[in-house]
């Protein structure tokens, strides 16, 4: 621990358990690794070394059982919508959803004539953060994820109160 | 093209061509009934040897007119190509399959079936290619109207909801 070494005796920190829990949750929201269209490429770029999502505590998990955040990256077709819903239901609580890109937020360029595209993933699952863009740059995605982390940090999981 | 395909086909399969005012070089319009045999003939005859089926397209000519299936054939050996057009009745669109002649036609025909509802008679596995199995209707037809909901998910058709 470098400069802190041997500077302090054994300490007790007094804090609310709620706060500590939500702080711990907010700094390691593991996201579910699945991409549906071109937004997935930007998500991969975000996870790769230049933007490096792991520095804000996020790492991809390949199973919905281990994931906290679902990044819906791309066009959700009707065929896929049923699967997306099923995957969301398989995730363990607490779970969060990010709608990445204009397709996932509102159907994007497929509005209103795309007969096969779900007009916004919020029609089937609750969404926490919307990220506009077609596709959003990695900076936008990181911004959205930091917004989500703020949201989680303001939650009080034990008392179920939202402090904003 | 060196070989006159239309002329050759009428010699072997009399009456297979649809009567037209003029016969263009780029495509031939065929009757559907003998198509399976004609396809084998096109592939296996030495001077023609159309060994590659590059694409199968469906066409809809409007609500009163017929559907059509178009086959783009190419010969690797002679480096010539031709388009075969076969029309099908809108009410009862049935065309014989060529999936046993060109293997790739299996998936092409499934896609045309998915989008236009043309049934390829004798196809080994005629299921939808892109859309879900329980989808109603054929979306690339001119008279197609999309569903209002799918498995309880509402499909809004007016844009006002978002603006």
Strands, helices and their partners?
The complex is a heterodimer of chains A (164) and B (163).
Chain A: H1 17-26, E1 31-32, H2 39-47, E2 60-61, E3 69-73, H3 78-90, E4 96-100, H4 101-106, E5 129-131, H5 138-153, E6 155-156, E7 161-162
Helix pairs in contact in A: 1-5, 2-5
Chain B: H1 5-12, E1 27-30, H2 35-44, E2 52-60, E3 67-75, E4 80-88, E5 94-96, H3 105-116, E6 119-121, E7 149-150, E8 153-154
Parallel strand pairs in B: 1-4, 5-6
Antiparallel strand pairs in B: 2-3, 3-4, 7-8
Shape of chain A: elongated
What count of helical segments of chain B does DSSP give? Answer: 3
How many domain regions of chain B? 1
CATH fold naming of chain A: Rossmann fold
Strand content of chain B: 25-35%
Lateral strand order in the biggest sheet of chain A: 2-1-3-4-5
**CA(first)-CA(last) distance of chain B:** 56 Å
Main pleated sheet of chain A? 5 strands, parallel
CATH architecture classification name of chain B: 2-Layer Sandwich
Q: Kindly report the CATH topology of chain B.
A: Beta Polymerase, domain 2
* Overall mean confidence score, pLDDT of chain B: 85
Q: Estimate percent helicity of chain A.
A: 25-40%
- Count up the helices of chain A: 5
Radius of gyration of chain B: 18 Å
Query: Count of DSSP E strands of chain A?
Result: 7
The total number of structural domains of chain A is 1
How much of the residues of chain A is beta strand, in percent?
Answer: 5-15%
Radius of gyration of chain A: 18 Å
State mean pLDDT of chain A (0 to 100 scale).
88
**SS-based structural class of chain A?**
alpha/beta
């Amino acid at each position: 621990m470098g400069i802190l070494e041997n500077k302090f005796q054994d300490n007790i920190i007094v804090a609310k358990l709620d706060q500590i829990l939500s702080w711990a949750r907010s700094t390691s929201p593991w996201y579910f690794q699945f991409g549906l269209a071109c937004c997935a490429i930007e998500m991969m770029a975000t996870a790769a070394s230049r933007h490096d999502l792991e520095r804000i505590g996020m790492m991809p998990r390949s199973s919905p059982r281990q994931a906290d955040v679902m990044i819906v990256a791309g066009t959700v077709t009707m065929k896929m919508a049923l699967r997306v819903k099923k995957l969301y239901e398989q995730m363990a609580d607490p779970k969060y959803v990010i709608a990445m890109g204009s397709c996932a937020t509102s159907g994007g360029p497929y509005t209103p004539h795309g007969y096969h595209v779900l007009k916004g993933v919020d029609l089937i699952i609750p969404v926490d953060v919307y990220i506009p863009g077609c596709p959003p740059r990695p900076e936008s995605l990181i911004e959205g994820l930091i917004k989500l982390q703020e949201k989680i940090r303001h939650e009080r999981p034990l008392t179920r109160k939202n402090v904003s | 093209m060196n070989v006159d395909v239309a002329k050759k086909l009428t010699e072997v399969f009399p009456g297979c061509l649809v009567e037209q005012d003029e016969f263009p070089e780029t495509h031939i319009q065929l009757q559907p009934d003998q198509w399976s045999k004609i396809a084998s003939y096109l592939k296996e005859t030495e001077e023609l040897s159309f060994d590659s089926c590059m694409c199968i397209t469906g066409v809809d000519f409007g609500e009163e007119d017929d559907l059509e299936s178009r086959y783009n054939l190419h010969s690797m050996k002679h480096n010539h190509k031709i388009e075969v057009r076969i029309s099908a009745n809108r009410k009862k669109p049935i065309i014989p399959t060529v999936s046993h002649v060109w293997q790739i036609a299996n998936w092409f025909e499934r896609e045309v079936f998915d989008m236009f509802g043309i049934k390829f008679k004798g196809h080994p596995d005629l299921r939808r290619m892109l859309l879900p199995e329980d989808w109603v209707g054929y979306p690339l037809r001119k008279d197609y109207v999309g569903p209002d909901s799918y498995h309880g998910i509402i499909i809004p058709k007016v844009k006002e909801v978002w603006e």
